[in-house]
Specification:
This protein is 39% helix and 11% strand. With 378 residues, it is α/β, with parallel strands linked by helices.
């Protein structure tokens, strides 16, 4: 039964009661007699395996907002299924093989249940719908929209969180953001959210509150929050701030890619169309230029080989730092970090002897990266 039908039935019932009361001469209480109180639904969230004062036990959702989200998000159901109907078996098998190969290469370490429990600008409220990435590190960041409407306050966001917290939905996301830049971080990036079917193991997903009929994807404040989340997430997982690409069920270019471009293997959705993806990427680039170490202008002077090894070293150090040190992660991370650091040391000797463009600035930046504090050293 749709919401409109339910509302019509309630209205008919109220009219019948009023008519009966009039016939019997009974005075019914008016709205001024009993103030209208919005019904609130309280849902328990996923229990934290480690005590975290920032993680609430429950989330409160206006019943009307939750009802609207339940109806709007029907087409998100069962996004957990990573072998969606209509995809040729050969494509599904090729995607699964790429995931197995990546798991061996990435050796994504088992993380504590509260690994990376916070994202700046977002409130954590972890839901029950998630699963393991199976050793695969994220390669793509995927913006979506909810098909539900923005409403003032947290109700619109919490309603979507409530939907993703229900087992029957078979769906979830890593983040939910609205026009007012309210943000919930609801599935840890080290875990797998269920949002884009066959690409779930590869993706970090962000749901944007939008019906698909507004004149823009989000507000200026919403774009700033998106830029912050994407920039930070991309830096954590060494994902370039560029448009990603796929072929069939395989990722061929890491980056940012909207849900619609994932095709049938991604669940055959069309969002974020009709909105362009480039403003989302631009928002992430704008945030990074103002806040991260790679915003150092000297980074942009590096040549391709230098940038490759700087990115590799910084990424492996972030993995070790996030998990408590080199002894807590797979040996591959230390080996890759050491190889890139060795390459940078050799490069510093070449730059010192040659006459390459911007030599002093490039040398200074490489020296800065190579001589980071002890905790982050390979």
């Amino acid at each position: 039964m749709t919401r409109k039908v339910r509302v019509a039935l309630v209205a008919l019932a109220l009219a019948a009661v009023a008519l009966l009361a009039a016939v019997l001469g009974i005075d019914l209480p008016t709205s001024s007699d009993q103030p209208d109180r919005e019904a609130i639904v309280t849902q328990p969230l996923a229990p934290a395996a480690i005590a975290d004062p920032a993680q609430p036990d429950t989330i409160e959702i206006p019943a009307d907002d939750l009802e609207q989200a339940n109806e709007a998000l029907d087409d998100h159901q069962d996004a957990r299924d990573e072998r969606p109907a209509g995809v040729p078996p050969a494509e599904l098998d090729a995607g699964a093989q790429q995931q197995r190969d990546a798991a061996r290469e990435d050796q994504l370490p088992p993380t504590a249940p509260l690994a990376a429990p916070a994202q700046a600008g977002c409130s954590s409220a972890f839901v029950r719908n998630y699963s393991s990435r199976g050793g695969v590190a994220p390669r793509i960041i995927v913006p979506h929209y909810t098909v539900s409407a923005n409403r003032p306050g947290w109700g619109d966001v919490n309603a979507v969180v409530g939907w993703f917290n229900q087992a029957r939905s078979g769906a979830s996301s890593n983040y939910v953001v609205d026009d007012e830049a309210h943000c919930r971080y609801i599935v840890r990036e080290s875990d797998k959210a269920w949002t884009q079917a066959g690409f779930n193991p590869w993706a970090i997903s962000i749901e944007i509150i939008n019906t698909g009929k507004e004149g823009r994807l989000t507000s200026a404040a919403g774009y700033r929050r998106l830029g912050q989340i994407i920039s930070d997430s991309a830096e954590r997982w060494n994902i370039p701030l560029r448009q990603g690409a796929i072929v069939g069920c395989r990722v061929t270019r890491s980056g940012i890619i909207d849900h619609g471009r994932l095709g049938s293997c991604g669940g055959n959705h069309h969002d974020i169309a009709p909105y362009p993806l480039q403003p989302v990427i631009d928002a992430a680039i704008a945030h990074r230029r103002g806040t991260t170490s790679t915003a150092d202008p000297r980074y942009r002077l590096l040549v391709a080989g230098e940038r490759k090894h700087v990115d590799e070293l910084l990424y492996r150090r972030r993995v070790a730092n996030r998990n408590g040190g080199w002894s807590k992660v797979a040996p591959l991370h230390l080996a890759r970090a050491s190889a890139s650091r060795k390459w940078i040391r050799q490069r510093l000797r070449v730059i010192g002897a040659g006459s390459q463009a911007n030599r002093p600035k490039r040398r200074a930046y490489l020296r800065k990266v190579e001589s980071r504090p002890a905790l982050l050293q390979p």
